[in-house]
Amino acid sequence: MEERNTRRVSTRLGSGLALLLFIFAPLPTLADSGVFVSVTLDGYSEPEPLLDTVEEWGESFDKGERQWLLNEFEVGYRLNNGLSIAVVQRGLASTRINERAAQYYGRIERNEPLTDANVPIELTVSGFTGQGARLGYTHRQDRWSASVDVSVFEAQHLMDGGLSGSLTTNTDGSYHIAADVDYHYYRDSLFNRPNIDRPTGVGHALDLKLDYQVTDRWQLSVQAEDVWAAVEWNRAPYTVASANSQRQTYDEAGFVSFNPLFEGTEGYREEYRQTIEPRYLLSSEFKSGPWSFNTHLKHQFGTLMPVLGVARRWRPDTEWGLSYDLERRVLGLSASHHRWVLAFATDALELEKAKALYLTLSYNPS
Fold this sequence. Notes:
Elements: E1 2-4, E2 7-9, E3 34-45, H1 50-55, E4 66-78, E5 83-97, H2 99-109, E6 117-141, E7 144-169, E8 175-185, E9 200-213, E10 218-225, E11 230-250, E12 256-258, E13 261-275, E14 279-288, E15 291-300, E16 303-315, E17 318-325, E18 330-337, E19 340-346, E20 356-363
C-alpha cells in the first residue's frame, strides 16, 4: 500500500517468581481489619519538564532518554485473617528515546539552527489505563510476613511499539526523517489514521512482597510489582510501515507540515498481548531510638534508583522523614500520623520546571 498526502503532525506526538512466599495454612490473625485507601503518582522525564511533556511532547527536549508516568488509586477492605479485596484504577505511560534524537528533535520543534548531521532514532512507547479488582492475602509468622496480590482489570488507551530510523539535518534548516514503524495504538499519533475503532482489553497482574525482621532494630523488605502482568487486547489497531518525510513549513500554531511517503500496512489484530514491565524494590530500615535510617534500591523501566533516607519519631504515632534519590536527584519529604502516610518528592521548587515528581497518600487499618 502506498499513498502520498500532506500531513499535519502535531508536536504531541516476567518471567515471574516461581515460588510463592507464603503458605495457605490456617489463616493467622493480623493486628487490625478495616478500610484502606491509597493514591500514588510517579512521574519522571529526563528530556524535558513533566508539564511540557503532557502539554506539547518534545518541544522542550534537551538531553536525556527516559520518561514515564504512573498513577494508581486503590480502595478496599482488609479482614483480620489476612485476606483483602479492593477496587483499583491505574494508568501507565512510558517512552524511551535515544539522547541525540531527543536533542535534535527539540531543536527542530523550537525552530533553532541546525547542523549537518545524521542522527539515529530509536523510540519505544508503552501505555494503557485500566480499572478492576485486586484480591490479596498476607501471611505472618514469627519475624517474617509475605503478601501476594492478584489484579484483574479492564483496559483502554493502548500504546505499544515504536520506530527505528534516522534523522538527517542540514545547516540551511531542512531535515529529513526515514523510519520503520511498528506499533499498536488507540489513536494514531504518527500518521493520523482516521475513524479508528478503539480497542479494549483484559489485564492481569501479580504483586509479591516479603518482609523480614532481621533483628529488633533491623528490617529488610523485597517487593515485586507486575512481576507477571499483561493485557490481552481485542481488535488492536496497528501500523507496520516505512515512512519518509521532507520538511516544508511551520504554521502559525507551531505545527510542522510534511509531505510524507508512507508504505506499509495498517489494520486490526483480533488478539494482541501487551506485556507489562515488572518493577522491583529492595528496602532496608535500621532503628536507633527515635531515629530510623532507610535505604531503598528501586528498579523500573530499565532504571536503577538508589535512595537514602532518615526519619524521626516525635510522638508514638507521628513521624517525619527526609530522603534523597541519587539517580534522579530528587529530594523527598514524608509524614505519618496514626494510620495516615503522606510522601512527596520533586527535583524542582517550581512545578513547571520539575522533571521528577512523586506523591502518595495512604490510609491503612494497621
